[in-house]
Amino acid sequence: MTNNPYVAEPLRFFDCCPVSDGGACVILASAEVAKKLKKPMVRLAGVGQATDSHCVHERAEPTDLLAVRGAAAQAFKMAGITPGDVDVAELHDAFTILEIAESEEVGFFKKGQGHLALERGETRLGREAAHQHLRRSEGQGSSRRATGVGQAHEIILQLRGEAEKRQVKGREDCFTCNFGGFGNNVVCLVFKRED
Question: Are the C-beta atoms of residues 95 and 11 closer than 8 Å to each other?
Answer without folding.
Answer: yes
